[in-house]
Write a structure and sequence with these properties.
The structure holds two protein chains of two kinds. By secondary structure, chain A is α/β, with parallel strands linked by helices. Chain A has eleven helices and seven strands. Chain A folds into two domains: about 40-165, no CATH class; about 170-269, no CATH class. Chain A has helices spanning about 10-15, 20-30, 40-60, 65-75, 80-100, 105-130, 170-180, 180-190, 205-220, 230-240, 250-260, and strands at about 5, 35, 135, 150, 155, 245-250, 265. In chain A, the strands form two sheets. Chain A has a five-stranded parallel β-sheet. A two-stranded antiparallel sheet of chain A has the order 4-5. In chain A, β6, α11 (about 250-260) and β7 (about 265) form a beta-alpha-beta unit. Chain B has helices spanning about 15-25, 70, 80-105, 110-125, 135-150, 155-170, 180-190, 200-210, 215-220, and strands at about 1-5, 40-50, 55-60. Chain B folds into two domains: about 1-65, no CATH class; about 70-200, Four Helix Bundle (Hemerythrin (Met), subunit A), CATH 1.20.120. Chain B is mainly alpha-helical. Mean pLDDT of chain B is about 70; it is low at about 1-40, about 60-65 and about 210-230. Chain B is globular and about 80 Å long. Chain B has a three-stranded antiparallel β-sheet, with no helix packed on it. The chains are: A alpha/beta, B mainly alpha. At the A-B interface, α1, α3, α5, α6 and β4 of A face α5, α7, α8 and α9 of B.
């Protein structure tokens, strides 16, 4: 049976004890060896971990629940109705965190919420490093790994005060992909709108990814813009999935065209 | 035989005057009402008469002295200050946790419930005093919530052991960092303690739980820069 190569969505599901954890864990147990690239951690740090730390810091800085909610909504990357509905539901709960505590200091309720958020994000980040029966592979020397910690004002900070790659290093993910220019070319072709299903042909992330891959092919990793590292996204998992393994993702729609172009496979857990 | 306690930061007596000073007033050993962990290491003078009626004297270092953390940060964990008082409440909770384990084995489940309530109360009192370290505060708050809602029917010896382990851990290392705190909370949660914060859970669910979200939004969460349209 083929091994598993976990993408970021599956790493998050397992590390955050999400609803998909049990399903993913049983799939992984049956599909060994299971590996996750450091690139998934890099995506997690710059994505969910940063979002949660930002949310923590926004609430810490807010004077009342309305201010906190407004700031959280501003940080929302999408305007989907479901997402707004969820955040509106949180508004009611947030109010209780800012309301007077009849038996003590008003700030204690907010403090408990903030500490709980901090523990959640630190736990997510720590567990992502120690997934059961999953090996972390393909180290990135530009990856800014380390602990999430409190800053002097009680704010949450990323490793070395950053959620991004180490600026002085070249993009190691781009260098991995550039090692196989044939695969790079195949993925650029696969992402051409005429080769994609009409439902995803004009998705912004596919367009961005194709642009990033083209830039990498033409300029090489040395001059590849580090800001485009995350645009590589799904292409990294398709290209770097080792022989004998399949990409494990909850987002097969975007992974499949790339995997098929490289004669690889992508499955949901 | 007589025993005299000599504070660790005092020089050992060398002459009769020193001996007189050191022996006045005597300090009791293992005073249960005094938080031992807040006191510095002690030296005990032991005097015995040997077979020739001569006095044999020895200076013995008390092993039941303070924990390393209070030796490292004596100014922080002074019993008159908040952190020192928080430390005392946590130590009391350790004792209640040990008693809960004993009661669980007897079995006296009513006593287990009582001790969990005492732990919750200790955590409630300790919590406002933990503002010197938010990581410690997070664990204390988690334990308070968990022991408050604990169902006696779902408790196991393993869960109680995990609770005492967590309490001992924060007692021995109140300056723990966020990662250590999240590890402790994970251990408790894995043993069935439910100390999660409802609002925090809802907030995290709204921010990162992507179930039910459109695929495009899921992608947007991972690739915010891709929201910029291509030229």
């Amino acid at each position: 049976m083929a091994g598993s190569f976990l993408d970021t969505t599956v790493v998050v599901d397992i590390a955050d004890n999400g609803s998909g954890k049990a399903k993913a864990a049983s799939y992984i147990a049956a599909h060994q060896p299971a590996e996750a690239p450091y690139y998934a951690l890099r995506e997690l740090l710059a994505g969910h971990v940063q979002n949660l730390c930002d949310a923590h810091n926004v609430i810490a800085a807010a004077e009342n629940h309305a201010e906190a909610l407004l700031a959280l909504l501003r940080r929302s990357p999408a305007e989907g109705r479901k997402r707004e509905a969820k955040l509106q539901a949180v508004a009611t709960s947030l109010r209780s965190a800012f309301e007077a505590n009849p038996s003590g200091d008003r700030s204690q309720l907010k403090r408990e919420l903030l500490q709980s958020l901090a523990l959640r994000v630190a736990g997510l980040w720590r567990r992502a490093h120690t997934l059961n029966t999953v090996g972390l592979v393909q180290f990135l020397d530009c990856f800014n790994d380390g602990k999430i910690s409190y800053g002097p004002a009680g704010e949450l900070r990323g490793p070395r005060d950053s959620f991004n790659c180490i600026k002085s290093e070249r993009c190691a993910a781009a260098a991995y992909l550039y090692d196989n220019k044939s695969d790079l070319t195949k993925m650029i072709d696969a992402l051409h709108p005429s080769n994609l299903d009409p439902s995803v042909a004009h998705k912004p992330e596919n367009q961005q990814r194709r642009k990033a891959l083209k830039e990498l092919l033409s300029k090489g990793p040395k001059d590849f813009g580090k800001g485009r590292c995350r645009a590589l996204g799904d292409a990294y998992f398709a290209a770097m999935c080792p022989p004998g393994s399949d990409v494990l993702t909850t987002n097969t729609q975007d992974h499949l065209p790339l995997c098929v172009a490289l004669a690889k496979r992508a499955f949901p857990p | 035989m007589t025993a005299t306690i000599i504070p660790w930061n005092k020089t050992l007596p060398t002459g009769p005057a020193d001996v007189a000073r050191a022996t006045q007033p005597p300090v009791s050993v293992n005073n249960a009402t005094t938080p031992m962990a807040l006191e510095p290491p002690r030296l005990r003078r032991s005097s015995t008469f040997n077979s020739t009626n001569a006095v044999d004297e020895a200076i013995i270092r008390e092993q039941s002295g303070p924990s390393p953390i209070t030796r490292i940060y004596p100014h922080v964990f002074d019993e008159d200050l908040g952190p020192g008082q928080a430390y005392v409440h946590i130590q009391n909770a350790v004792r209640d946790g040990e008693l809960a384990i004993e009661a669980f084995g007897e079995p006296d489940l009513d006593a287990v419930t009582t001790h969990l309530g005492q732990i919750a109360a200790a955590m409630r009192t300790a919590y406002p005093l933990t503002d010197f370290n938010d990581s410690l505060g997070g664990v204390v708050a988690f334990i308070r919530r968990a022991t408050l809602v604990a169902s006696i029917g779902e408790l196991s010896r393993s869960a109680l052991n995990a609770l005492v382990y967590a309490l001992r851990s924060i007692a021995s290392n109140p300056m723990l960092d966020l990662e250590e705190a999240s590890d402790l909370v994970d251990k408790l949660a894995n043993e069935g303690w439910h100390g999660e914060h409802k609002v925090a859970d809802e907030l995290v669910a709204a921010l990162i739980d992507q179930s039910g979200l459109d695929e495009q939004i899921r992608q947007a969460l991972l690739f915010p820069e891709s929201q910029v349209a291509e030229d």
